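Hi there,

I know you've been waiting on this one. I reran it after we fixed the sequence typo, so this is the corrected version. Both the input and the resulting structure follow.
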Amino acid sequence: MARKPKLSAVRARGANGRRVVYLLVSLVLTGVVLAMFIAGPGINCSDKAKFGDMVYGRADRPFVYRALLPGAVRAVSSIVPSQTRDFVNGSIAGSHLVGPLFRGLGWEEEYWTDYVIALALLYGSLLGFLLAMRYLCRGVLLTPAWFADGVSLAAVLALPPFFRHYGYIYDFPLLLLFTAALGFMVRRRWWPFLVVFLLGCINKETTILLTMLFVIHFRADDSMERSVFWKLAAAQLTIFAVVKLALSLAFQGNPGAFVEFHLIDHNLAVLKSYSLSTSILWLG
């Protein structure tokens, strides 16, 4: 008579099955959300941050300062052989589906290979954000794996309502790096945190908000030595200052301003859609 499999083996197979399903759903959902992002608003809709100008350092300040993904696209593109570039561009131009799609999105033919590279990096960034959200969830909450899986999928699924006005090629890397940094911060893995913080500063200056969260969370934490706290805070401020200075010097000749101030036309404008009592309630 055949022996019944042990309960532990059955559970292991079930867990592996759930892992496979989670991975497949993640891959498909990430692709769908990326397609929605590309379709509208897209990554070439802002006159101050056109795709080609971002990749090749001609965009207006402060957008040109957000140099991580544009730099990655330019670096990968520089090692693509000209024959491969011609093949990619020719294949897209000869396709009855992809060619009209790229043209309809306003993607210039001279940058088509760069767009393909950017799409791959954006897909990886969005998938990485999903996994980073799961990592953060498991670090913050004592929760079963299936719950963290659901949270990460829900986080990606919640993004499309925010695809309203403009889309920038640094948006998804920002989600990935900020979330991963929070995950490392929660676990006090400081070397990976500082590496991600550095990449985040190159990607967008709002990464400095991580330092504010760090100070709020660990300033009164007796389990962290004060010397360690001050060293980590100083390291973050130094990294931010060096990156900001380097980018400012590199693109000092570009048009535009050092920063763009949107407190009134963006942030405070949102409050106009709520009554005074509702605004006070939310602020409270």
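Quick highlight: The chain has a mean pLDDT of 89.

Best,
R. S.
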